[in-house]
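Budget justification aside, the reviewers requested a transparent look at the raw inputs and outputs of the sequence design task funded under Objective 1. We therefore reproduce one unedited record. The lines immediately below are the structure tokens for a 260-residue chain.
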């Protein structure tokens, strides 16, 4: 179990850096759940847990100082908990959220302590010392890696057996309560996403999806395929309009020049 914990912690460190600097989206639960599942030997449960957790964080967008629960630790700890304790993914969600909230508070504290270093970076910029600025950036990446490595390694390596023992001691009504709370989280995630994306222009597509799912009983993959076709068509129409507008502007300018 030690080797698995090390591998997961190393991946958590990389995903933590990606959240702030890489943005390749390997930090998303749908990816971290699959990786954790591969490491722990249960890819199926890792994918299920990761997909469930992805629904929670789908609409949780970090904006400035308003930071949602940490997606990296929530996804990794939640998926690992589901696999190691043999619990339902919804129950894992209920356990993962408190971890994610606590870690995000620690991340904010870490950034607060690191903020005075930015004055040093300003001084390096005034001196055109690019090497000094690079070192400060690399220092930030190292701190992020160490932090994420630690906060995932300790619960998984030390707490795996303890977590299983605790779950076995918990009354069934409490476990069911975690499952209910976790089951509500994806709905909240979708509500947050709709709150950000929902515009008058999109209502027609929302209604179309509702009709396809409710009355035509089209599966999710089929609805996604219809959405993909609509998106491609919209992209082509907008691209065509963008090409037409410069041409019209050039023609108008030429007519104006001829008049002069």
């Amino acid at each position: 179990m030690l080797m698995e914990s090390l591998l997961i912690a190393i991946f958590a460190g990389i995903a933590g850096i990606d959240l702030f600097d890489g943005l390749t989206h390997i930090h998303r639960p749908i990816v971290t759940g699959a990786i954790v599942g591969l490491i722990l030997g249960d890819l199926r449960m890792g994918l299920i847990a990761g997909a469930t957790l992805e629904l929670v964080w789908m609409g949780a967008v970090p904006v400035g100082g308003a930071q949602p629960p940490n997606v990296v630790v929530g996804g990794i700890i939640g998926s690992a908990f589901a696999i190691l304790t043999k619990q339902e993914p919804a129950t894992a969600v209920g356990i993962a959220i408190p971890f994610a909230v606590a870690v995000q508070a620690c991340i904010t504290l870490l950034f607060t302590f690191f903020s005075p270093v930015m004055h040093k970076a300003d001084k390096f910029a005034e001196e055109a010392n690019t090497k000094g600025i690079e070192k400060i950036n690399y220092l930030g990446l190292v701190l992020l890696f160490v932090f994420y490595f630690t906060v995932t390694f300790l619960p998984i390596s030390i707490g795996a057996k303890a977590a299983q023992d605790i779950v076995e001691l918990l009354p069934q009504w409490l476990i069911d309560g975690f499952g209910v709370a976790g089951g509500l989280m994806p709905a909240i995630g979708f509500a947050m996403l709709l709150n950000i994306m929902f515009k008058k222009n999109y209502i027609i597509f929302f209604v179309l999806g509702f009709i396809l799912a409710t009355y035509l009983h089209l599966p999710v993959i089929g609805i996604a395929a219809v959405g993909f076709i609509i998106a491609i068509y919209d992209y082509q129409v907008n691209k065509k309009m963008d090409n037409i507008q410069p041409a019209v502007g050039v023609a108008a300018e030429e007519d104006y020049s001829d008049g002069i």
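The longest helix spans residues 130-169. Residues 4 and 229 are 41 Å apart (CA to CA). Computational costs for records of this kind are itemized in the attached budget.
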